[in-house]
Design a protein that fits this description.
This protein is of the alpha/beta class. Helix content is 42%, strand content 16%. It has an eight-stranded mixed β-sheet with strand order 16-15-17-14-18-23-11-24. Strands 3-2-6-7-1-8 form a six-stranded parallel β-sheet. α36 links the parallel β28 and β29. The chain starts with 7 loop residues before the first helix and ends with a helix. It binds a DNA duplex (15 and 10 nucleotides) through α30.
DNA sequence: TTAAGGGACATTTTT
DNA sequence: TGTCCCTTAA
């Protein structure tokens, strides 16, 4: 590909190497191209080299890409740039601390040191674990903060607050708060008053009450305030009042919060010390100490500062990162590049105001840093603003759509205002514009998406630009399906797998929601307390039907195999060994198994965890969705499925924006937040513990109930997410919704069509499992059926007609409990263990087994993949005994209960087995029979043909719907 | 236009 | 658990 010539705006950026620049670089405007050119231009000068230029990126992959692109365009090779400061803020801080950081904590009055052995703790779940440990000790040592422990719903909440404070540059010191940190905690009354006044303005020329007063019409509903709170009418004024009194603003804002601040301070400082003593630094603390070091140590600052600083994806930086960029600048040659409309990382403390209010913040931050010393060279900064307006990626139609998307209300009542004036209009550069923008809708949303993709592939109506610039029909690889949530992506993958649809998933999977983690958790629960929740998972995995599991759980008579395994696990010393054995048992290897193992090990080693702790750790992982990165490829020509966040920076000819459904985010798990930090209000307590009178109680904070109604709330980031998604598209955009399209989709100029999803079976040239009647080695199909699940009545279908118990089947010896003991005995005997029969049932088993020759196998679950209406399903079954001789195969199922001759049911069970073995041993006949231990008789059972099993699946599913 | 009651709804993104 | 939407009454 030939290197393009820069356009005028790009040239201004490339050539303007001296001074301060803010570059508004929308999607597809050649930002990386211009930045790397600029970098090359600087370092190719004889007087500068890569060590003089800091290029800070947000992700590691972005740093790598930058390096590669620079190598293409400069005199430097990849090796020479290997150690060049082109890296993320985090890794640069790490580097800085390794070199100069030993005494950094001393600047906060902390005695502990950062040493060569201090590790970065990059797993947030593990950090949360450590924090809980810390907090447990802290509570014991600090009874004076008891009121706050009462109202804190969990330590996680406090850790969140600490992270947020760190991201804003608010740090604790041994004596009070570092620098002007406390003013952030107090908040800015003037700024609050502005918001308050805006919300308190009567509407309709004074005929209608203010938004704020209306909002407060439910003041106190479902709440309990302390007695000193004003009554609702005192707060709002009587009927007909249009606005709140001005002094309400004062009343809610000014409050004695010394104790609250002291609590947060002590916990924050204590945790810093704890981490250092434990020899680790979190991501947040890396930046914290780097900042402190650069601020306090002039010598280090001079040594670490760069001639040129460039920051990529500036919209994703946090407040403290902005300040770090200033401290790392030896001159005012600072260039930040970004696009506020693509700021979607607020949960990582990205602060969109860094870019939206760049000039103001630059002024303010520089002044703050220079208040007591001459630290940063931005005394009277006068940044040049460059706008890259030419879009090289998308058609004009797509660009237009994206600009509407970022202005679309998320609910009927919402109005979107500023900062939309700041949208820099882009002009398109595409060779042709045949853009299709459409919406589809069906309740089977996943199927709808897949069949839409199928319709698109090879369809000239959706032509995309080929290598030669000419239109060509699209392929699977041209299509990306975006989702907001990983869950949705995972569901889509599952449905795609049913149809053998070529999809590749890119991004994180929820480790704790995978089978290895679930089974590990199940076994830990079994070990801990023979917990039913654990057994249910284990038994289901083996293939027991729901009814059977219920029965086993009721009676507590677990099958022999798993019970023995449990005893074996009990003998193991460490939780790590247990994990290894469990994962081994199920054949989990490689990445999928390594990650849980690693997690188990690191949690265990570091915190002397008990089994109960580990169970809770995994449970929390399931709740919070700890993830591990995967990139599951499905060959070259496959649809990419990913979350919008992982798609950032990428581009695709065709984008399907899935899951455009209604859905607002409810309160977070674990209860409502107790302590919050939000500009401009500062630190707030949402609940108050009080021992007024005889009734200690956690009260709601009436002040905060007023304040939060003045805070901006809205869907700005959701809109930006949509913007990012749409602007990935080069040519076509399809929105897909289930039953209920959301307000975004309603608000966009897109016709939503109800479609009839039908995913056609694919002919991809090679036989797949779905083409075969069955394939023994195939993995489980997506829909599992056990024989028992194929009937809609009870398993014991003819229980109503059971004959009088015969002499062999007295109540003592009947039923599952007894049956399972016979089964255990039979298995042990068949395996050659030294066991002796203790009743007639077992004696008859001995007679049977002694009379059999050949290879005996016991209790082996099998799965039979079959196609039903072009969907692949899996039938699974377990037989008690398989006997293989050179000329035939026998499948025998023991029946201990003479009264339960549910042959129709047994027949299905054996049929599954029959078909699997018939495939395995294609050269000899397979016979299926039942052995009644009560009278020692055997009964041949004719297996059902596959067609009848398929019919049963259909019937079972129809019954289920 | 305001007040007040009640029901439906829904658990995210990851350096 | 908070929010939004709908209903009913004043």
């Amino acid at each position: 590909m030939s290197e393009p010539t820069p356009n005028d705006a790009q040239r201004e950026l490339i050539e303007g190497t001296e001074g301060t620049y803010l570059v508004d670089a929308g999607p597809g405007t050649g930002k990386t191209f211009a930045v790397t050119r600029r970098y090359g231009r600087i370092v190719d000068r004889p007087e500068t080299d890569p060590d003089d230029v800091l290029l800070a990126t947000f992700t590691r992959s972005a740093a790598t890409e930058m390096k590669e692109r620079i190598v293409d365009r400069s005199a430097y090779g990849l090796r020479e740039l290997a150690d060049a400061p082109i890296r993320t803020f985090h890794s640069h801080c790490h580097e800085l601390l390794q070199e100069h950081g030993y005494a950094a904590p001393a600047h906060l009055g902390i005695d502990e040191r950062i040493t060569g052995s201090t590790r970065i703790l990059d797993d947030e779940l593990i950090e949360a674990e450590r924090f809980r440990e810390f907090f447990g000790g802290f509570r014991d040592d600090h009874p004076e903060h008891a009121d706050f422990y009462r109202v804190l719903s969990s330590p996680d909440e406090l850790l969140d607050l600490i992270r947020e404070l760190a991201s804003k540059g608010v740090f604790p010191a041994a004596d009070g708060w570092y620098r002007d940190g406390e003013s952030h905690l107090d908040g800015d009354f003037e700024a609050f008053k502005e918001r308050f006044d805006a919300a308190n303005e009567p509407r309709n020329d004074g005929r209608k009450q203010s938004v704020l007063r209306e909002d407060l019409s439910r003041f106190g509903r479902d709440k309990t305030y302390r007695p000193d709170a004003p009554s609702k009418s005192a707060l709002r004024g009587g009927r007909g009042t249009k606005r709140l009194d001005d002094d309400v603003a004062d009343a809610v804002f000014r409050e004695d919060r010394e104790a609250l601040k002291a609590f947060v301070h002590d916990a924050y400082l204590g945790y810093l010390r704890f981490a250092l003593r434990r020899n680790y630094l979190s991501f947040s603390f890396l930046q914290l100490f780097a900042f402190v070091l650069l601020c306090e140590d002039e010598r280090v600052r001079e040594a670490a500062a760069f001639e040129y600083v460039m920051v990529d994806e500036f919209q994703d930086t946090s407040e403290v990162q902005f300040k770090l960029a200033l401290l790392l600048s030896a001159t005012d040659n600072l260039c930040v590049v970004g696009d506020w409309k693509q700021s979607i990382y607020s949960f990582q403390y990205a602060d969109v105001d860094n870019i939206l209010e760049f000039e103001g913040r630059l002024d303010r931050f520089a002044a703050d840093l220079n208040a007591d010393a001459d630290r940063v060279p931005f005394d009277s900064p006068d940044p040049t603003r460059i706008e890259l307006r030419e879009n090289y990626r998308s058609t004009a139609s797509v660009i237009d759509l994206s600009e509407r998307a970022v202005a679309t209300p998320a609910s009927s009542g919402e109005t979107v205002e500023a900062p939309l004036d700041d949208v820099v209009e882009l002009s398109a550069n595409a060779a042709f514009d045949n853009t299709v923008i459409e919406g589809i809708r069906h309740e089977d949303e996943h199927e709808a998406v897949l069949s839409k993709v199928q319709e698109i592939v090879g369809n000239d109506d959706y032509a995309v630009e080929g290598e030669d610039g000419e239109p060509r029909p699209p392929e699977y690889g041209d299509v990306a399906v975006f989702t907001r949530t990983r869950d949705y992506g995972r569901e889509l993958l599952e449905v795609a797998a049913e149809h053998d649809f070529p999809v590749a998933y890119d991004g994180g999977i929820e480790l704790f929601r995978t089978d290895p983690a679930k089974l590990l958790l199940a076994w830990l629960r079994i070990l801990d307390a023979d917990a039913e929740r654990g057994w249910a998972v284990v038994l289901e995995r083996i293939g027991y039907a729901v009814d059977e599991i219920d029965h086993i759980l009721e009676t507590g008579s677990y099958p022999a195999g798993p019970a023995e395994f449990r005893d074996e696990l009990r003998d193991l010393e460490s939780v790590g060994a247990v994990a290894r054995r469990v994962l081994d048992r199920y054949g989990f290897t490689g990445d999928v198994a390594d990650v849980p193992l690693h997690t188990v090990q690191s949690v265990h080693d570091s915190t002397t965890a008990t089994r109960g702790d580990l169970i809770r750790h995994i449970e929390r992982g399931v709740e919070t969705g700890g993830t591990v990165d995967v990139s599951a490829s499905a060959g070259d020509d496959a649809v990419t499925v990913q979350t919008i966040h992982t798609a950032k920076g990428l581009e695709y000819p065709i984008v399907v924006m899935a899951n455009m459904n209604e859905g607002r985010f409810p309160p977070r798990a674990g209860g409502s937040s107790v302590i919050q930090f939000r500009d401009p209000v500062g630190l707030r307590r949402r609940k108050v513990y009080s021992e007024d009178g005889a009734h200690p109680h956690v009260y709601d904070d009436w002040r905060y109930d007023v304040i939060r109604r003045c805070l901006p709330r809205g869907y700005d980031e959701e809109r930006r997410l949509l913007y990012v998604a749409v602007t990935r598209a080069e040519s076509h955009v399809v929105f897909a919704a289930g039953e209920d399209p959301n307000a975004f989709l309603d608000g966009l100029p897109v016709a939503v069509e109800e479609i009839d999803p039908r995913v056609e079976p694919l002919d991809r040239g090679e036989p797949t499992d779905a083409d075969l009647p069955f394939a023994v080695t195939a993995p489980d199909g997506p829909i599992g059926h056990t024989p028992h699940s194929l009937i809609d009545e009870s398993v014991f279908e003819d229980a109503g007609e059971r004959p009088e118990p015969g002499p062999e089947a007295d109540p003592e010896t009947r039923g599952m409990d007894f049956g399972s003991r016979v089964h255990d005995f039979a298995e042990a005997y068949a395996l050659g263990d030294d066991v002796t029969p203790s009743n007639d049932h077992e004696r008859r088993i001995v007679e049977l087994l002694d009379g059999l020759s050949g290879d005996l196998r016991v209790e082996e679950p099998v799965t039979l993949p079959v196609a039903v209406d072009d969907r692949r399903v899996t039938l699974s079954g377990i037989a008690d005994l398989v006997r293989v001789t050179p000329d035939r195969v026998e499948v025998i199922d023991y029946k201990t209960d003479a009264t339960r001759r549910a042959q129709a049911e047994y027949r299905k069970q054996l049929s599954v087995y029959y078909h699997v073995l018939d495939e395995w041993f294609a050269d000899r006949p397979v016979e299926t029979s039942l052995f009644y231990t009560s009278d020692g008789t055997r009964e041949r059972i004719d297996p059902l043909p596959i067609e009848e099993l398929q019919d049963l699946v259909r019937a079972a599913e129809a019954a289920r719907d």
